[in-house]
Structures are given as C-alpha cells and as structure tokens.
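Example 9 (inverse folding). The structure is encoded as follows.
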C-alpha cells in the first residue's frame, strides 16, 4: 500500500515549457508540492487540461481550470482521469487530495468504489487557512 498525493494545477504558471512540478508557480501549489513530497510515497498533478500529470512531464503553459467549467465538462474530465489514476496506482493505496472540490467531486466516489482510501486533509478550509495548515504540516 502506497500513499499517493494528488495536487491540483494552479492558474499561475511560468511563461515557458517546464516540468509540471515546476510549471505551476503559485505559493499554494508550491506548498502543496512540498507537503506531498514530504508525506507521500509518490505524487501527481491533476491538470484541467492534461489530466493526470507526473511531476516530470514537460508541458507548456495553458489557461484551463475546472473551477469555471460546467458540471458536464467536469464529469468528462473525471472520466478521462480515472483510468489514468487506476493505471498508475493500486486499489488499497491511500490517495491524498490537495485539490479543490471541483477537482475531487467526480473522482472520489468512483475511486472509493475501487477500494482506495481517501484523505482530504484540508477539506472545508478557506485558502488562507489552507496555507496556514500547509505551513504547520511542512
């Protein structure tokens, strides 16, 4: 059983292609990255454009977010991401979501059906409180 971090992408990005772990340049993303690197065996990025990204995947900057997508599009995104999660993880793994509700809503119910354990350590916290939580747990 592994502990796998899933961090959502961020709006703020570098202006040139880079490994996904470095492309997202916002403070919340950087802190979430540090958290999963410290507390998880492996981690991935939930990208609104690319689906599930390995931190080393080199990608170009983009401007897509699930936060403004209609529910039908978010469902389609989740249906594309679920097989990617299943092929890179194992049932019984603990998936730690450091991602907002729009990134989790259609993933978690399906993942739980497959026998994964889910953790959402910052669930219900506003952005300022999330940063405080991350600072405390780094």
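The amino acid assigned to each position is listed next.
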């Amino acid at each position: 059983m592994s502990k796998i971090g899933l961090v959502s992408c961020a709006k703020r990005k570098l202006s040139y292609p880079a490994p996904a772990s470095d492309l997202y340049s916002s403070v919340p993303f950087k802190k979430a990255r540090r958290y999963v690197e410290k507390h998880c065996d492996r981690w991935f990025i939930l990208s609104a454009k690319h689906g599930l990204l390995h931190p080393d995947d080199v990608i170009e900057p983009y401007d897509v977010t699930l936060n403004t997508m209609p529910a039908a599009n978010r469902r389609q995104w989740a249906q594309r991401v679920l097989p990617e999660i299943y092929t890179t993880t194992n049932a019984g793994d603990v998936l730690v979501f450091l991602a907002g509700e729009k990134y989790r809503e259609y993933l978690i119910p399906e993942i739980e059906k497959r026998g994964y354990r889910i953790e959402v350590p910052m669930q219900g916290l506003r952005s300022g409180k999330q940063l405080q939580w991350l600072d405390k747990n780094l």
